[in-house]
Amino acid sequence: MKVLVPVKRVPDTAGEKKIDPNDRTVDRESVESVLCPVNEFAIEEAMRLKEQQDAEVTVLLVGPESAQPVVRKALSYGLDAGVQVVDDAVVGSDALGTAEVLAKALAAEEFDLVIFGNQSTDARTCLVPAAVAEILGLPALTYARHLEIDGDQITVHREHEEGWDVVESSLPAVVSVVEAINEPRYPSFKGIMAAKSKPLEVRSLDDLDVDTSRVGSDNAAAIMYEFRDRPPKEPGTIVEDDGSGAAATQLADWLVEKKFV
Amino acid sequence: MEFELSEEQRAFRDVLRRFADERIAPVARDWELSGRHPTEIVDGLAELGLFGILVPEEYGGLALDAVSYGIVFEEISRAWMGIAGFLGTHSLATNLLTRFGTDEQRRAHLPDLAAGRRISALGLTEPGAGSDLQGITTRAVRDGDAYVLNGVKTWLTNAAIAEPIVVLVVTDPTAEPRHRGLSLLLVDAGLDGVEISGDIPKLGYHGTSSHEVAFTDVRVPATALLGGEEGLGFKQAVSALEIGRVNIAARSVGLARASYDAAVAYATQREAFGHPIAEFQAIQLKLADMATELQAGRLMWHWAAAAMDAGGRSDLQTGMAKLYCSEMALRASLTALRVHGGYGFSQEFEVERYYRDAPLMAIGEGTSDILRIVIARRLIAGEALS
Questions:
Q1: I need a labelling partner for B187 at 20 to 30 A (CA). Which of A28, A106, B65, B102 fits?
Q2: Residue B250: which CATH number?
Q3: CB A68 within 8 A of CB A168
Q4: Chain A closest CA to B60's CA: distance in Å?
Q5: Confidence category of residue B153, pLDDT binned at 50, 70, 90
Q6: Alpha-carbon distances, residue A9 vs A34, A60, A122, A226, B248 (angstroms)
Q7: CA dist., res. B220 & res. B215, Å (int)
Q8: Integer distance in angstroms from the first to the last C-alpha of chain A?
Q9: Does B50 share its domain with B35?
Q10: Contact between B8 and A73 using a beta-carbon 8 Å cutoff
Q11: Is the Cβ–Cβ distance between B136 and B196 less than 8 Å?
């Protein structure tokens, strides 16, 4: 069984992110870049398939050469190989452009299953996994909180606000996982040491036969016209208890007003 | 001049830092105060591969360089120094086996020790001999195909669960100089005549157990003599344990970082006279000194570890790093406590633990005064500082 895990380099989730006013993309200088934390759940799920079903797992990343440490980081969890798509023409692609590139890069590999994180912690559009499945003409099983493979059948529990649906399809398929699916391991020191020597192939858009009129900032369907800083946090409301019980009523009213209850 | 860690060393640091933040720091205070054994943390460190930190890769270990080795101990100690203790002792015992064990001894022990299936301990200090290590009295007398062991060792980390305990013994009481009469034996704690005390009550360094071990007519197979040759024990111990100074220096810096971080966090949040106390110069002077000494200590242990990695003699460097960093950690923990005022004395805050853990840094693996003598001897012998 062959599994592909597309991952993304994102600005540190805990850091204060800024937009570069010149090209209106994320300012990568102002905050450290890391492997998207949601990807760790996809990697863990792939590692489980590797351990249980001897799956061969390849990590895929679209991003500049400077993003290579993120591929190595993903490999340090124990994955087998890496593919990195490096091309200046990709810069500024929106979700659809990114999906075009990923779909071509995936199509160039043999696979039974693609496991995405359901969203990235920078853009959080949640669009890419479904878009990739659509372009490839494959079943999309998104928001998986549980995943099982039996022969060439896959079953996932698809999470939604009221619980989950059981969704089945045949392989090959594209899955996106949510954080409830597992508890990611830490990379072991051996894994970190081995990551250096794992095979890593670099491909250009030309290699993958990507139609460049569909990628990059000039061809993005989503256009950012304006951006501004996050508004400062408003101070919270302090409810003081004077002993009469009025504070409890006030709290209950507030919860109802905000639709928490 | 390079002051940067390699990509791999940064990756080690990042994983350990995250593990320490997520798995150690949140439970450290409760578990330390209640005396709960940190089972889950120990298991996690084994999964990371850290039991094989100094074991060659052919036996399933990591064979880390001294800088990477120090990073592990600094990051763990930032969260809970006591946890670093069992791993530190184990790593030194495995280093003795790696460096001086016979092929058979290595094959018999290292794979299990590297995988964390077994843990090892070291028995050097005795109730009557610590700094004067050549003054030990635990005696091993050859009798046929065994040594008969009698004596008492103390301050053995891990001893209750160790297999083996590496024990320094006198094999020839008439040898001159005395160290030529000392040998190391690999002793199974389950042998008849081995009696292990309960955890020695102590000021700090909880989370790691410390024991006294008495040997009464214990028959140890002669094949358990480390390296298979008598009279080398003292030299083997001094050589393989030198990296222990990097270990303690790095632990000290971890402890000092924890102290500093706690002091800054408290000083910016605590208000007095209508201002955060961090705005007062009396506090600022303390924070500035702490940060400066902390950085000096960090550079010093990196320098000493790099000297070890370069090969050649490095006891001057490791001695200086251990001396400076441990004394610095003592100062940092006290300063952090003072910045916290009354709360610093309370067990509701972490800093009182740092203050209880710090003194061991200036005692274990060579007291500060012993290290001063080591340093002075090298200087007098003409070793240049550059």
A1: B65
A2: 1.20.140.10
A3: no
A4: 9
A5: very high
A6: 6, 11, 9, 24, 36
A7: 11
A8: 46
A9: yes
A10: no
A11: no
Distance CA A165, CA B92 (A): 54
Residue with tokens 């391991």: A185
A chain contacts of residue B7, beta-carbon cutoff 8 Å: 69, 72
B2 given a catalytic annotation:
no
Q: Is B162 helix (H, G, I), strand (E, B) or coil?
A: strand
Dihedral pair phi/psi, residue B348, rounded to 5° = -80, -15
Helix (H) or strand (E) holding B357: helix B351-361
Domain that holds residue B204: 121-231
Kindly report the pTM of this predicted structure: 0.90
Q: Best interface-test mutation with A: which of B6, B8, B17, B45 has the largest number of A CBs within 10 A?
A: B8
Chain A residue with Cα closest to B68: A189
Quick one: average pLDDT of B151-156? 96
Residues B115 and B148 in one domain: no
Q: Tell me the CATH number at B152.
A: 2.40.110.10
* Nearest Cα residue to B198 out of B150, B162, B151, B159: B159
Query: Interface pTM (ipTM) of the complex?
Result: 0.87
Residue A74: closest CA among chain B residues belongs to which residue?
A: B11
Q: Does a structural domain hold residue B385?
A: no
Residue with tokens 């501004």: A228
User: How much is the average pLDDT of A75-93?
Assistant: 95
Portion of chain B with pLDDT greater than 90, in percent? 93
